[in-house]
Amino acid sequence: MAEQSVSGKTIAFLVSTEGIEQAELTGPWEAVKEAGGTPVLLSTESGEVQAFNHLDKADTFPVDRVVDDVSVDDFDGLVLPGGAPNGDLLRTFEGAVSFVKQFVEAGKPTAVICHAPWVLVEADVVRGKQVTSWPSLQTDLRNAGGEWVDQEVVVDGNLVTSRQPDDIPAFNREFLALVAGAA
Fold this sequence. Notes:
- It is a single chain.
- This protein is α/β, with parallel strands linked by helices.
- Helix content is 32%, strand content 28%.
- The protein is built from 6 helices and 12 strands.
- A 7-stranded mixed beta sheet has the order 6-3-1-7-8-12-11, with helices on both faces. A 3-stranded mixed beta sheet has the order 2-4-5.
- Helix 1 packs across helix 6 and helix 3 packs across helix 4.
- It is globular, with a radius of gyration of 14 Å.
- Keywords: Glutamine amidotransferase.
């Protein structure tokens, strides 16, 4: 598949303050940049966020904007990187959950990987959708009304989901295609 251009598009990357799986942040971030888009790091607080390589601390990244200070209208796409602590913390922050709910309900391209689908569950936006995630979330997603499948990437409407860092190439490809095709 040819590289999708997302030139002129602004993509929000929403994370908590810590526990982000670094590869699931940096892989899609670089793909957005390489395709001509502008990634913006959103978090629940200003300052820096702490990424991890599984259980080991990795790099920190500066927050561009606080989620409570932005609008869904400011962005053309949304990425929710995984990491168990990240997904768990993010789903407890009302502003983040509200932002995700509004984004999905607006029909904008949304890409969610690994443990980040917990935020989709909290936002009540998986009902009737086919999704995937890290396997330990499958019961939560089914209980929220989603149809969980074990595939590297699942696209249902404008929602892209994947399981783990190994799935990032497929995750990026499908998300960029949605963003490129969005009006």
